[in-house]
């Protein structure tokens, strides 16, 4: 049974059971794979090296579209922003997911503030993907899924995914409470 | 698995439009005087949109840690996002707005930038 994250003098500490570590690492790795830029057959190697992209289409996968949203309601501006930032945004997210996965190798998990921020981003991206798969588009949808809290009672893949979503949400909440305590009180 | 506390923001995301390619930001040499004045003078807003997934605690943390806002301001902005569907969280130059939007996307928040006074 996970205990969530707590702020201690050593840093932000979390204790996990082995199956929880495996679950989180699998989620981080799956989201990282979802974020990997699609290979482009015709791309110039030099352009790839310097991170130059011609037009970058908006992702068709709703989960990816949520992690890489349009930056403007002006389509031209949004497309230009995407062209300039898509690759680095994906890379930043993948780096945070990998770092978070690695941090889970320690028992207990001890995070610096910076590592905890990466962990929070990673948990959030996992939640965005799960929410998209669970079609959480409204507060009512969120309430429907919030009822699923028992792994033992999950009777379908969707229900199981809902329990996972709630577990990750709860874990992120404990992490945010710990992180908020690192900020100056004012 | 402990107490669940997953108060999330509710949904009013901006409509996704079909994207087309755009010209890059004009180089200074090609920018006319009028455009240069506009680019410098007109402030840009960074808008954060509501969604049913991001935790309130997470949004408050991002506003505090990224912008350095005091707790009360961060909470007020978060609640505005939650209740009104969107909130202007920063106003400044185009370059600053773009940088903040990119950072907020890194945090998984749904942020856009727009010319001040457009909405």
Automatic annotation (TrEMBL), chain A:
Family annotation (Pfam families): DUF2017 (PF09438)
Listed name of the protein: DUF2017 domain-containing protein
Automatic annotation (TrEMBL), chain B:
SUPFAM superfamilies attached to this UniProt entry: ClpS-like (SSF54736)
Gene3D superfamilies given in the database record: 3.30.1390.10
Pfam assignment, any one: ClpS
Keywords, alphabetical: Hydrolase, Protease
Domain Adaptor protein ClpS core intervals: 43-112
GO MF, one annotated term: peptidase activity
Keyword set includes Iron: no
InterPro entries: ClpS (IPR022935), ClpS_core (IPR003769), Ribosomal_bL12_C/ClpS-like (IPR014719)
Record-level GO BP terms: protein catabolic process; proteolysis
Origin: domain of life: Bacteria
Its biological purpose: Involved in the modulation of the specificity of the ClpAP-mediated ATP-dependent protein degradation.
Assembly with partners or alone: Binds to the N-terminal domain of the chaperone ClpA.
Family: Belongs to the ClpS family.
Protein name per UniProt: ATP-dependent Clp protease adapter protein ClpS
Organism: Kocuria tytonicola
